[in-house]
Amino acid sequence: MTTISNSLMWFRKGLRIHDNPALEYAAKNSSNVYPVFVIDPHYMKPDPGAFSPGSRLAGVNRIRFLLESLVDLDSSLKKLGSRLLVFHGEPGDELIRCLKEWNIKRLCFEYDTDPYYQALGARVKNYASENGIEIFSPVSHTLFNPAHIIEKNGGKPPMNCQLILKLVGEPQWLSSPLSTTLDTIPPIGDVGNCDIIEVPTLKQLGYEDIQEDEPPIFRGGETEALRRLRESTSDKEWVAKFEKPKGDPSAFLKPATTMLSPYLKFGCLSSRYFYQCCKEIEKEFKNHTDPPVSLRAQLLWREFFYAVGFGTPNFDHMRGNAICRQIPWNDDDELLAAWRDSRTGFPWIDAIMVQLRKWGWIHHLARHSVACFLTRGDLFVHWEKGRDVFERLLVDSDWAINNGNWLWLSCSSFFYQIQIYLDTKYIVLSVISHDVASKECKRKIGAAYELNKKTNGMIQIYLDTKYIVLSVISHDVASKECKRKIGAAYELNKKTNGMVSDEDMQNLRRKLVEDQ
Ligand code: FAD
Prior knowledge:
Belongs to the DNA photolyase class-1 family. By secondary structure, the chain is of the alpha/beta class. Helix content is about 45%, strand content about 10%. The chain has 20 helices and nine strands. It has a five-stranded parallel β-sheet with strand order 3-2-1-4-5, with helices on both faces. A four-stranded antiparallel β-sheet has the order 6-7-9-8, covered by helices on one side. The longest helix is centred in the first third of the chain and has 20 residues, at about 60-80. Mean pLDDT is about 85; it is low at about 415-435 and about 455-480. The structure holds flavin-adenine dinucleotide (FAD). Flavin-adenine dinucleotide binds near residues 260, 261, 298, 302 and 405.
C-alpha cells in the first residue's frame, strides 16, 4: 500500500481512542497525522443574558464536560506520541485553512447526522473533494447507519423501536472484537503559522464567575467513561436483569441506570463497545432481559431516534414535520419560566428541575415527569420550548434523542392512541383531544353530555383545563358487553391508527349505547 504523506483527523464527537475507525484510518500508512479540534463559538460563547451560566445553546455543565474531555483526549494522544491541535473559530473556516496550510492528502472524521454537523461536514467535504483530498467518514457514533435502517424500511424511518433489529439484524461488527487501543500514531508534521492553542479553561472562555457549591457530578473524558462502564458492568447480574422503566428514578447513591449518557453523547464512550459488552454479559445468563427493556435495548432506543431524526424533515419543529401532530399549544412564557426555574409549587416537578440545573442530568422517568407536566399533562406549553431548556441544560443533550423524546412525551408523535385503561373495577375508554377551544371539541363535549343524560350517568365526561378526556365507564368488566366495548375500541384504534375522527367517535358511541 502507498504511503499517504499528511492526514488530518477532525474530532467533533468521537472524543476517544478506543473503537475510533476514523482515527485508525488516519494513522494507517500516513507519514504525519494532525489531530484537530475546533472550539466553536456557536456553542461556547458566553451569553450573559441566559437564565443560567453558559452560552446561548449550552449550559456551563456541558461546556465544562467538553473541555475536560478534550484535556483527556490530548493526554491520551500525547501517550501515543502526538497531541491535540486546538483552534478557536468557525470550524469550517479553520478546517479549510488547515487542509491548505498542511497540504493534507487525507481527511478523516466520524460521520454525524445532526443537521448542524451535516452542513459543516458538507462544506469541508466539498472543499476536500474539489482539491483531490481523500475523505474517510465512517459511521461509528451509532450502532448502525441510520440511512441503512431507513433503506431497509422501504425508504421511510421506522416508527417503532422494536423494528430496528428486525430490519437490520444484529450489527456485523459484533462478530469480531472491536479495537480498544491504538499502539501508535504517526507524528504531527510542521504546523506552520497556524494559531494553535491549548485546551482552554472555562475562565479563558469567559466564564469567570462560576460559583460551585458542590463538585460537578460528571468528569468528562474517555478515561472516566471507560472507568464508569467497567463499574456499571461489573455487576453482571444487574446488567442481565436490567429492566426499564422499572427502577427508582430518585435513587442517587446507586443510580437505577448507568448514567453513561454524557459519555455517549460526546463519543467518549463508543456505543458499539458498550453494546458488545452487554451482549457478552447476556451470554452468561439464560434468563437475561431482552429488548425493549434490557440495558442493551436502551442503545436501540438511541438508534431508533437517530434513524427517525435523520429521515424526517423538520424533525425538531412542529410545523412542517410530517410525523408531528399540529397542536395549538399556548405561548405562556410565565408558565414556562415557572417550570424552568422550579416555581410550579409541585415539589416533585420543582425538585427535578433543580437537579437538572445543578447536575445537567436527570433520570429518564424524571424527564418523563417534567416533560409531560410542561406539555400535555398540565401547563400545555409548546414542547419546543421545553426541548430548548433541556437542550441547553443537559450534559447529554443530543439533537435526535432529545427532540424524539419531546415529540413522544407531548403526545405529538409515536404515541397518541385512544387509550384503554382496564381496571379490576371498571373500564375507561377515552379519547384525548388537545384542542380544547375548537368547535370539534365543543361538539364532542355536547354530544357526550347528551349521551350522559340519556344513559343516566353510565357515560362520564372528565373535562380537564388542558385536555379533554371523553370516557365511557362500565363497572362490569367481565360482562359480554364490556368485552364488546373493548373489542370495538381496539378495532377502531387499529383502523384509524390512533387518529379518531368525530364521525368515528359518533359511530362508536352509537355502538356502545346499543350494547348497553
Ligand atoms: P441508561 O438507562 O443507562 O441507558 C444507556 C444509554 O441508552 C443512555 O445513556 C442513552 O444513550 C440510551 N438511552 C436510554 N434511554 C433512551 C431513550 N429513551 N431514548 C434514546 N436513548 C436512550 N437522552 C440523551 O442521551 N440525550 C438527550 O438529550 C435526552 N433527552 C431526553 C428528553 C426527554 C423529554 C426524555 C423523556 C428523555 C431524554 N433522553 C435523552 C433519554 C433518556 O432519558 C436518557 O438517555 C437516559 O436517562 C440517560 O441515562 P443513562 O445513561 O443512565 O441511561
